[in-house]
UniProtKB/TrEMBL annotation:
Chain ranges of the Nitroreductase domain: 39-214
Stretches with biased composition (Basic and acidic residues): 1-11
GO molecular function: oxidoreductase activity
Protein name per UniProt: Nitroreductase
Alphabetical list of PANTHER family matching this protein: NAD(P)H NITROREDUCTASE RV3131-RELATED, NADPH NITROREDUCTASE
Species this protein is from: Breoghania corrubedonensis
Pfam families the record matches: Nitroreductase (PF00881)
Annotated region described as Disordered, given as residue ranges: 1-21
InterPro entries for the chain: Nitroreductase, Nitroreductase-like, Nitroreductase/BluB
Length: 268
């Protein structure tokens, strides 16, 4: 699907090693601009409702998704750009209802306010087709435990592939200066039955995520990230990085809401 001009930037020849303008391999001049985008990618859950995303920005963003890696190079993704405010509103209504249902069930998950979806200037629905698991290492027509393991693995490959493309799109949007919002469309069948007809999605396909973006309604803030030492290990897993069940439970009870919604301090 092409929303912008037929003749797009992407049709230009890619830069090759040796082209005059490319800094040499390993140069910070290559790394720093990418890292600036990565650091500035932040989640916002409310956007400026008056802003209109220029049509070509959707192409720029989805062009980044198109280049993502995927298992077996299957590229198991579809993206639906939603520009109709009524469709946005109806999808937002679904999530607001889900938010209420979770509160009623006392799930204790700090569920965000999904009303911001209705007026998000940029709105892209991320869709996949689980039949693609057949493209990954699985045995055909086999109900064995062994094949269940392969199928689980294949589902992970599929989800990671779509996440790679989605993340690429988020970074492209962040590079344009937009704040982004990654919303999981839950796997539940009722999420699918609520959204498929609105978007004309065939039954075989599933909505995996919603990607909303735009200028944020309020200045966004950078959330806490684990320090580098805490996530990196060399040659062997550092046992000091292992969390016990109790520590994890404590983290979920006492820290999760802070790192999701509040600035937990210095981030570099
Ligand atoms: C796979 C994935 C699923 C997410 N699902 C939701 C979601 O359903 N609703 C939501 O409000 N945020 C969701 N988020 C956003 C995270 O809450 C957010 O990325 C996190 O709190 C870190 O904040 P940051 O993006 O500003 O770094 C999701 C993020 C990822 C990567």
């Amino acid at each position: 699907m092409t929303i912008g001009n037929a003749e797009r930037e992407s049709d230009a020849e890619p830069l090759e090693e040796g082209d005059v303008d490319l800094p040499k391999i390993g140069s910070r001049a290559r790394y720093d601009p990418l890292m600036a985008v990565m650091k500035n990618r932040v989640t916002a859950r409310a956007f400026d409702p008056a802003f209109t995303v220029p049509a070509e920005h959707y192409d720029l963003i989805l062009e980044a998704a198109r280049h993502a890696p995927s298992g077996a190079n299957s590229q198991p993704w579809h993206f639906i750009v939603v520009r109709d405010p009524e469709i946005k509103r109806r999808i937002a209504d679904y999530f607001v209802d889900e938010q209420r249902a979770r509160a009623k069930m006392k799930m204790k998950f700090p569920t965000p306010d999904y009303r911001g979806l209705a007026t998000a200037p940029g709105f892209i629905v991320v869709v996949s087709d689980f039949r693609w698991v057949q493209a990954f290492p699985v045995l055909k027509d086999d109900d064995s435990d062994l094949n269940r393991m392969y199928r689980e693995n294949a589902e992970r490959i599929l989800l990671q592939s779509v996440a790679a493309a989605t993340m690429s799109a988020h970074l492209a949007a962040a590079s344009l200066g937009y704040a982004v919002w990654w919303v999981t469309a839950i796997g539940q069948e009722n999420a699918q039955t609520a959204m498929r007809p609105l978007l004309g999605i065939p039954d075989e396909l599933s909505v995996l995520d919603i990607f909303a973006f735009g200028p944020p309604a309020r200045p966004p803030y950078k959330r806490w990230k684990k320090p580098l030492e805490e996530i990196s290990n060399v040659d062997r897993f550092d046992p000091a990085h292992f969390m016990s069940d109790d520590e994890m439970e404590d983290w979920i009870r006492n820290k999760r809401h802070k790192v999701m919604f509040k600035d937990a301090g210095k981030v570099d």
